[in-house]
Specification:
mainly alpha; Rossmann fold; three-stranded parallel sheet; two-stranded antiparallel ribbon; 6 helices
């Protein structure tokens, strides 16, 4: 999507939407992904495109819990991989933790595609980063290909996970 002026109040939203459309065409997303994204956009619009105080508090709480966790793992679904995959890899490189693809509408094709997408993002970030952080970025392990674990108390396909990650 081109031609959106920087002054457009919803430029970032329109660009994110286009990324989702392109990712869907590449088979990265479930059929319901755009519906889920649209629900989030509706709330953003109603909230005036700003992060609420309670959301800011939740972000800080999540960051604090990741920092003190004995075995942190960043779990990614299709939408988060498309919209924030690079950011998740950078956070994982700082924490020294893996990133794990964990999706509800699980097919081997989607899992391979999402893992491949994250690996490509990691490799690009590593190449483009200063040498002093390159090793930590390239060291981020992308999990999810081997579902040899289960999340206790969770039913359905999302309960499948890596024993080296979420489990």
């Amino acid at each position: 999507m081109t031609g959106i002026p920087d002054s457009h109040p919803r430029k970032a939203s329109l660009m994110s939407r286009q990324r989702m459309v392109e990712a869907s065409k590449r088979g990265l997303l479930a059929e319901s992904a755009m519906i889920a994204h649209g629900r989030g956009e509706a709330f953003d619009y109603l909230l005036g495109e700003r992060t609420s105080d309670s959301a800011s508090l939740a972000i800080r709480e999540a960051a604090a819990r990741l920092l003190v966790s004995e075995r942190p793992v960043i779990s990614m679904n299709g939408n988060s991989t498309v919209l924030a995959g690079s950011e998740a890899i950078m956070i994982a490189s700082i924490l020294g933790c893996p990133v794990e693809v964990n999706i509800y509408y699980r097919t081997s094709e989607r899992m391979e595609s999402l893992i491949g997408e994250l690996e490509s993002l990691r490799d690009r970030l590593g190449r483009e980063s200063p040498e002093m952080v390159r090793e930590s970025i390239m060291g981020v392990e992308i999990l999810g290909a081997v579902a040899d674990g289960r999340i206790l108390g969770l039913q359905g396909p999302r309960a499948l996970c890596s024993s080296r990650g979420i489990e």
